[in-house]
Amino acid sequence: MSPTELIQTDRFVLSETERSAIEHEMHHYEDPRAASIEALKIVQKARGWVPDGAIPAIADILGIPGSDVEGVATFYSQIFRSPVGRHIIRVCDSMTCYIGGHETLLESVQNALGIGLGQTTADGRFTLLPVCCLGNCDKAPALMIDEDTFGNATPEGMAALLEQYP
Amino acid sequence: MTLASFGPINSSARQEQTHPLTWRLRADGEPVWLDEYRQKNGYAAARKALLEMAQADIVQQVKDSGLKGRGGAGFPTGVKWGLMPADDSITTRYLLCNADEMEPNTWKDRMLMEQLPHQLIEGMLISARALKTYRGYIFLRGEYVDAARNLNRAIDEAKAAGLLGKNILGTGFDFELFVHTGAGRYICGEETALINSLEGRRANPRAKPPFPAAAGVWGKPTCVNNVETLNNVPAIVLNGVDWYKSLARPGSEDMGTKLMGFSGKVKTPGIWEVPFGISARELFEDFAGGMRDGYTLKCWQPGGAGTGFLLPEHLEASMYAGGIGKVGTRMGTGLALAVDTSINMVSLLRNMEEFFARESCGWCTPCRDGLPWNVKILRALEKGQGEPGDIELLEHLVRSCGPGKTFCAHAPGAVEPLGSAIKYFRAEFEAGLA
């Protein structure tokens, strides 16, 4: 995504696909509000993040105040309210991974990409985030890139691994 | 570096009568789909529960079995079930499966959901029948993408086979099941925060009472059970209370088997289904193989970040709630962590308290303000810049964030390991004073 594409236009419109996916989700619950997190995830999946205009658009479909949707969007750590990279790297920071060498691993990723936790590389390729225990404790340290989880991660192996995510 | 599908869990022999949770696992670590699950006696318990048993008898059987919650708190499942209203005119009720496994050093539910999705569905189907719930949700953390895929495929299989949906097994009983995936935040695993999150709200805990059994999701009676807890239900129904009570070691007050584990710098980190009441030493030495060459055990935690540290001498303790309680902490999730002598306790606690502070939902003041204060002091101590009185201040925070000061157990869980670390390794904290 180029930086110009990230600039928000005045009018935000949900795509037909997004709208129908949100409406489909609503039917799984007694109350449309329950689909708010899923709605944010649907928009994020299509656009990489949740632009400002998506908040009132989702609120309209669900019939709840925009402030409630924003409250949810800013609470959950896997909903992004600002643009992120094409690939999300989540490094597990549980105490098990700490013992397994998490800090050395994290440092090697930070040095390789030139960014800290919560930041995105200048070319828009990677965003680096911490994450709660990934449930890979027998293979510590662990990390996740997009939807792929890796165990027994080593600083030496990171360069080759990152190459797989252009 | 390996792409981490869960893989085969271990090669120990597993029999139906002694390993009710894991005997159906495949040697190759692949999921057990419907045909194979049925060949392995799958849904026989559901058939028995729906066709031959009265609803109250299922509840009574689970009560009598002594099954306790496997999510970390260990509340008796039958008692929780018994809190659901007896009034049959209340027809809208919910069964929630807490699959928001995020407790550091806990990865048992992931294994069950990825490899035995039908066992959870069968457990939920029987429980739904017992509790008269017409709809269930599996609240699954968003990062467990393989578990989500496998559960959804298994639900489709079960629907097509008439094991979910309308008029199940011709009994007139209807039960719909959905997978609801989360969007991060450790606090969603707290029972009432989970309910708020499912409703599409911020995951703040709710005051109890009212308990979820009286007013849960959308104000309706709701029962929330952990993945492993629900996985216990089919075998209890099929094989009975006497069999279930014979599983644990003599002396254990907790019944049945438990997925326990050991990780850290041990020779063979992993998860095993073992009887309640085995000693921590057996788990550590016989199953995990003891420490790797060149590493020495310094201390250990019995079951997750929110449990206290114990010394090597405490490995004699029995792994059940009362056994671990006797040596001063809680059994938690039963997946233990070995800390070796190369680890500095101040640095380890700094790592843990950063996690707890970050994951506080901010609802209660002691938690929102107290946990970052712990982090600030620990960071200073780690750099050797602690001030006189800092350790006493940490001890004060341990007391002020303890049980009863906040809506939920997040803050008490955060300070339990800290209090025990100061108790056993005070010199390491003192070394951080400037």
From TrEMBL, chain A:
Keywords: 2Fe-2S, Iron, Iron-sulfur, Metal-binding. Binds 1 [2Fe-2S] cluster. [2Fe-2S] cluster binds at C92, C97, C133, C137. It comes from Azomonas agilis. This is NADH-quinone oxidoreductase subunit E. The keyword Oxidoreductase does not apply. The keyword Metal-binding applies. Belongs to the complex I 24 kDa subunit family. It catalyses: a quinone + NADH + 5 H(+)(in) = a quinol + NAD(+) + 4 H(+)(out). GO terms for molecular function: 2 iron, 2 sulfur cluster binding; metal ion binding; NADH dehydrogenase activity. CDD domains: TRX_Fd_NuoE. PANTHER family: NADH DEHYDROGENASE [UBIQUINONE] FLAVOPROTEIN 2, MITOCHONDRIAL, NADH DEHYDROGENASE UBIQUINONE FLAVOPROTEIN 2, MITOCHONDRIAL. Composed of 13 different subunits. Subunits NuoCD, E, F, and G constitute the peripheral sector of the complex. Its cofactor is [2Fe-2S] cluster.
Automatic annotation (TrEMBL), chain B:
It is an enzyme of class 7 (translocase). It comes from the Bacteria. Residues 8-20 have a biased composition (Polar residues). Keywords: 4Fe-4S, Flavoprotein, FMN, Iron, Iron-sulfur, Metal-binding, NAD, Quinone, Translocase. Its EC number is 7.1.1.-. The keyword Metal-binding applies. Its cofactor is FMN; [4Fe-4S] cluster. Signal peptide: none annotated. Pfam families: Complex1_51K, NADH_4Fe-4S. It catalyses: a quinone + NADH + 5 H(+)(in) = a quinol + NAD(+) + 4 H(+)(out). Residues 346-391 form the NADH-ubiquinone oxidoreductase 51kDa subunit iron-sulphur binding domain. PROSITE patterns: COMPLEX1_51K_1, COMPLEX1_51K_2. The keyword Metal-binding applies. InterPro entries: NADH-UbQ_OxRdtase_51kDa_CS (IPR001949), NADH-UbQ_OxRdtase_suF (IPR011537), Nuo51_FMN-bd (IPR011538), Nuo51_FMN-bd_sf (IPR037225), Nuop51_4Fe4S-bd (IPR019575), Nuop51_4Fe4S-bd_sf (IPR037207). Residues 1-20 are annotated as: Disordered. SMART domains: NADH_4Fe-4S. One of its GO terms (molecular function) is quinone binding. NDH-1 shuttles electrons from NADH, via FMN and iron-sulfur (Fe-S) centers, to quinones in the respiratory chain. Belongs to the complex I 51 kDa subunit family. Composed of 13 different subunits. Subunits NuoCD, E, F, and G constitute the peripheral sector of the complex. This is NADH-quinone oxidoreductase subunit F.
